[in-house]
Amino acid sequence: MASTIFSIKFFSLFISSIAIIGMATAGDPNIISDFVLPQNATLIDGNFFTFTGMRSLFLSSPPTTFKVLKASMAEFPALNGQSVSYAVLEFANGTINPPHIHPRSAELLFLLGGTLQVGFVDTTNKLFTQTLEAGDLFVFPKGLVHFQYNADPQGFALALSAFGSANAGTVSIPNTLFTTGIDDNVLAKSFKTDVATIQALKAALGAPKP
Fold this sequence. Notes:
- By secondary structure, the protein is of the alpha+beta class.
- The protein has helices at about 1-25, 175-180, 185-190, 195-205, and strands spanning about 65-70, 85-90, 95-100, 105-115, 115-120, 125-135, 135-140, 145-150, 155-165, 170.
- The longest helix is centred in the N-terminal third of the chain and has 23 residues, at about 1-25.
- It is globular.
- It starts with a helix and ends in a 6-residue tail after the last helix.
């Protein structure tokens, strides 16, 4: 029985790894060297290729909010030119990763624990949704609006997301629309509502007052 469970876990991780490698073939521009060194770097060793920022996951208590730990080019410079990055998503009960896009990569999400409601909208405005359980994978196509939601009122969820870019980028739809200074009248007309409603949404998101 134990060997069967191990085999299943190994197979899931193997499939995940193959998918990640496939994503990495169509991401950032190719480089003409083995790796890209930071400016003014003259001597590197294994430390340059090691990222320790995820160790905190094994030292912390269950999350009380939605949290993201990233290993992208900004946090891990050795990824520059390698067309791959990771993010660990921690969902407290009832929390959401609001609708957003990654303009430079698809996202392959591997749910490690808990349950998640996920979905994305394609360019024909069709919504695709799924309820994931631990061990499931779900792909969010490149550049499409998507979300993740932990609807469990008690349990937390933990997910690992892989990207086919060292710098996938994240554009939050709520923040982009309501915290960047777009004119209230433009938003009111776009959403077929009134300015007061737009201002209330901006206030709820902490947008600076004009």
